[in-house]
Specification:
Layout: H1 2-9, H2 16-19, E1 26-29, E2 32-34, E3 43-47, E4 50-54, H3 62-71, E5 79-83, H4 89-92, H5 95-102, E6 105-109, H6 113-117, E7 130-132, E8 137-140, E9 143-149, E10 158-166, E11 169-176, H7 196-208, E12 214-217, H8 225-228, H9 242-266
Parallel strand pairs: 4-5, 5-6, 6-7, 11-12
Antiparallel strand pairs: 1-2, 2-3, 3-4, 8-9, 9-10, 10-11
Helix pairs in contact: 7-9
């Protein structure tokens, strides 16, 4: 029950107003654009047949995302597909509003569906038009995204990979879900999520096996957005950062095993 409540609330404990601090929308690389806030990673993948949005964030964030999309010269109503990173309010609470405004098809990983069904801002039912499974592809306008189950943070936490092209070069992009944990997460003897620790271990293995050029994530802090953004256009693209991706995975894995051992010791 405790984990289920945390899964439902997600970032609410941190305060929506602080996480909705505006951040300049910008082209990341190729057909990939940042349309989120200073804290929340939302991305528009533009295609000739309409666009894909990853992460609607809080419902209160949706107007900010819309403004960012339009500042970049795109029509918000051209969003055809809405994806998410995981079933926490700070990433997917706005799904119903985005669907109302755009008619986009909402897609979510199967193991996150129960938590999403509980996410009803203002009493709105959480829309889910397609249930995804590990390895499924989502395709639109020549861009194909692969859904990777990277569970632990939530049961259906999803990391997205796809390719984009810029200046004749092809790059492998990831939008990482999360391999961290919130205060109160129980990694040992978790009655609501018995396999949570095993899922984290599998997720680290999955993420290490991926080839990544461009590192993006559900939170800007994960990929050092504030540090990298001022460097954009002043030299090599700072978001092409395979070393930064590996360093993040290394750090989170080290922290995970330290926390796992701490919780095991506390039970001895």
């Amino acid at each position: 029950m405790k984990l289920a409540l945390l899964t439902l609330l997600g970032g609410l404990a941190f305060g929506q107003s602080g996480w909705n601090t505006p951040f300049p929308p910008h082209k990341v690389i190729g057909n990939v654009y940042f349309v989120g806030t200073a804290q929340l990673g939302s991305f528009l993948i533009a295609t000739p047949q309409g666009h894909i949005l990853i992460n609607s964030d809080f419902e209160s964030t949706v107007p900010l995302i819309r403004q960012s999309v339009e500042k970049l010269g795109f029509q918000f109503t051209d969003i055809k597909i809405l994806l998410g990173s995981h079933a926490h309010a700070d990433h997917m609470e706005g799904d119903a509003m985005v669907k109302e405004l755009t008619g986009a098809k909402v897609m979510a990983m199967d193991r996150d569906v129960p938590a999403l069904r509980l996410m009803k801002p203002g009493g709105k039912e959480h829309p889910i038009d397609r249930i995804l499974h590990d390895g499924d592809k989502v395709e639109l306008g020549g861009t194909a995204l692969v859904a990777h189950l990277t569970a632990g943070h939530t049961k259906g936490c999803t990391s997205w990979t796809f390719q984009t092209t810029e200046d004749g070069k092809r790059y492998d992009v990831i939008v990482l879900g999360s391999v961290g944990w919130n205060p109160g997460y129980v990694l040992v003897n978790n009655k609501d999520y018995p396999q949570i620790a095993d899922d984290y271990v599998r997720s680290f293995k999955t993420l290490r096996a991926l080839h990544v050029d461009v590192f993006l994530a559900a939170h800007g802090a994960f990929y050092n957005l504030e540090e990298k953004y001022p460097k954009l256009g002043k030299g090599p693209n700072p978001f092409i950062d395979p070393a930064g991706y590996q360093a993040h995975i290394d750090l989170k894995e080290k922290q995970f095993y330290a926390e796992l051992e701490r919780q095991k010791n506390a039970l001895r």
